[in-house]
Design goal:
With about 260 residues, the chain is mostly helical. Helix 9 packs antiparallel against helix 10 and helix 9 crosses helix 12. It starts with a helix and ends with a strand.
Length: about 260
């Protein structure tokens, strides 16, 4: 019951964060920043990040939020068992140890800023745009995860607080989504594999429950898709409601 209240509070917080008076206008047409294919200036990285929050209200994001909530509720009964199995498997400790580093803010943001900086220095527009989108998606993901954590205040398996959702998982799924949107599934599949590795490591290290990372994966996907909304093309994966549950659907988006 407490978990359901936390999930409900988290969803309400997300909706409140997403609600803006300009919602309808932002959904109907992309902003000039979306249409401009040039890499943003350093200052624009942060102004555009703020503007991206205005794009959160959308049917697409609501569908992903629904899938994330459904996944969290569905996996919640298995939380204790999943933690016990993974955490008690001593052979998994070393292989999953790197997850804390790979999904941490210093590495994720550092790599994003490095990509952006190198792209600008070498006048490589594509690298600069990828870095810029990674920065914006990660800042949004961190903000959303922080807000939900404050609303949920779920204890971690280790006993400390703020377990729901997993920040590491949110950020890495946001990054994976950005990479998939820019480079397609050739890069997207390994990027999501790394994000899944980070998510599993958080359970194995007793930092999060299975339901924490399930919701975080959807939250990170929302952040990544919101930032790259004007760049979508090719084979796309979207959340889809279905009788008795939720799932994903494939569609082809033309540039």
């Amino acid at each position: 019951m407490r978990f359901r209240r936390s999930l409900g509070a988290s969803t309400l917080l997300f909706v409140m964060l997403a609600a803006t008076p300009a919602r309808a206008q932002l959904q109907s047409s992309p902003s000039p920043a979306d249409s401009n294919d040039e890499a943003p200036s350093f200052g624009q990285l942060f102004t555009r990040t703020l503007g991206n929050f205005g794009r959160l209200p959308s049917v697409d994001n609501l569908e992903w939020l629904t899938v994330g909530g459904a996944a969290a509720l569905a996996t919640h009964p298995a939380d204790a068992d999943a933690t016990r199995v993974l955490a008690n498997a001593g052979a998994l400790h070393e292989p999953f140890k790197a997850g804390a580093f790979l999904g941490g803010g210093p590495f994720e943001l550092g790599a994003a800023f490095a990509t952006y900086g190198v792209g600008r220095a070498l006048h490589n527009g594509r690298a600069a745009r990828v870095g810029a989108d990674l920065i914006q998606a990660q800042l949004m993901a961190e903000s959303l995860a922080f807000g939900v954590k404050q609303a949920a205040r779920r204890p971690r398996p280790s006993g400390s607080g703020f377990s729901f959702p997993s920040g590491h998982t949110t950020v890495t799924f946001a990054s994976a989504t950005v990479l998939q949107q820019h480079f397609g599934w050739r890069i997207g599949i390994p990027a999501y594999a790394v994000a899944s590795y980070v998510a599993t490591s958080r359970i194995q290290q007793r930092r999060h429950y299975l339901s924490d990372v399930a919701f975080a994966a959807a939250l990170g996907t929302i952040a990544g898709r919101t930032v790259t909304v004007s760049r979508r093309h090719g084979l796309a994966v979207r959340a889809a409601a279905a009788p008795g549950g939720a799932g994903v659907a494939l569609s082809w988006i033309r540039p």
